[in-house]
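Encode chain A's predicted structure.
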Amino acid sequence: MQELGGRTAVVTGAASGMGLAFAEAFLREGMQVVAADVEAPALARAEEQLAAVRGPEAVLAIRTDVSDPASVNALRDAALARFGRVNVVCNNAGVGGVRNPIGRLDLSDWQWVLGVNLWGVIHGCEAFVPHLLEHGDGHIVNTASIAGHISLPYMGPYNVSKHGVVTLSETLLHELAHAGSTVGVSVLCPGFVATNLIDADRNRPEHLVRPLDEPEDAGARERERAAGRELLGQKKPPAEVAQLVVDAVKANQFWIFTDDQFAPVVAERHRSIESVTNPPQARTLVDYLLA
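Encoded structure for chain A:
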């Protein structure tokens, strides 16, 4: 899809961070954009920001809970009603989850993270792939993470969700090729990007709120989170990631990595698989943030 002008993109998680940057980048390419997010006030602000890029007629904002298939189907229907056709779908909405060892996680932690990060992508594919196959002029971009290639400790639900998105995307790529389809697939595997993912629990559903931590645990977690905010704020700007996504859609490029910080770790893991040896000991997320 070398020319994006005049086409329509749907972006989930579009109220902030990478999703908002994707939407802005697509608008600058001459596309119409359907911006979806679960956070209504932030989505309203994003809609104003996006309308300033190319005019309100090119933007549609729809509150969407990607963990709910009915909500994603409604997003698809609204996009088609407004613009007639969708060409690019960015299944980008995501949450970070709670950093705890397996065994100290609550079942609600798994349900929340997998519901958004993995089921959200599944719902997006189920809703939009048939439409893309109908007209053939389309591309899916699924947001995974470098955590889809390595398994950092204390990030069980996040790691599982992102590994799932990677294999889902590869499977879709192969199936489309077997069908002779012209629809493309990309999987975005970012490292550290300056977003507010660390505060994603502001949108955690009430029915999936975890039991209260011990006070000392909660205090330590908030101190860690504050340090994480400061460190993440110094990382790659979302606009740079958005340009990588635009370029990948145009080039029909499957893998999108934002940097090579984790390339040695991924390579070491692959070598352990090839040699059937135990995986190398992984450092923690905080270790990498501080590196």
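The chain has a mean pLDDT of 91.
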